[in-house]
């Protein structure tokens, strides 16, 4: 039960936060911002509440349930701690973003253009730190046809990807202090690198196998 305490607490606190600020919120609130911190996406407060809370609830339920249906569920016992740290880190990021979104909607001056990359950078660094501990499975990690077909390729790909994610996250954090035109280039470059590089590397490793 301990492993469920933190995620359920975050979800519960967010529900309480929504209840407290609900009467004071405008009917339309910003839910998306560009790198300049300018709001460029809006939703009704009802839709915003259900979508933000819904994402956290669905993620929590999914992450709790998926190990039970994974054909490689026996592997989860080797990285149970890392699995829950990753889940809590993702939920923590969503929690912080939601609280900041509510503060922004209440009229507080929240620099969302800087906070977004900062928070995402932190989660990238956490993912990078724990990625090498993740064993082969069908739901979490770098799941390509080549990593899933070879434990050796899986391990080597995740060791390399961990460095990419960690330093990519660090670059995102540093990008919050960069000029706007550089910030956007850094963010897109990091995202592209973390998506494409591990995929290509897993294929190269697989082709090199004897």
TrEMBL record:
Q: What GO terms describe the biological role, i.e. biological process, of this protein?
A: response to toxic substance
Where would I find the DUF1648 domain in this sequence? 10-56
Q: Which InterPro entries match?
A: DUF1648, SdpI, SdpI/YhfL
Source organism's superkingdom? Bacteria
Show the stretches that span the lipid bilayer: 5-22, 42-65, 85-106, 112-130, 164-180, 186-206
Pfam families (UniProt xref): DUF1648, SdpI
Q: Which UniProt keywords apply?
A: Membrane, Transmembrane, Transmembrane helix
Q: Which PANTHER family match?
A: IMMUNITY PROTEIN SDPI
Please report the name of this protein according to its UniProt entry: SdpI family protein
Q: What is the lineage of its organism?
A: Bacteria, Bacillati, Bacillota, Bacilli, Bacillales
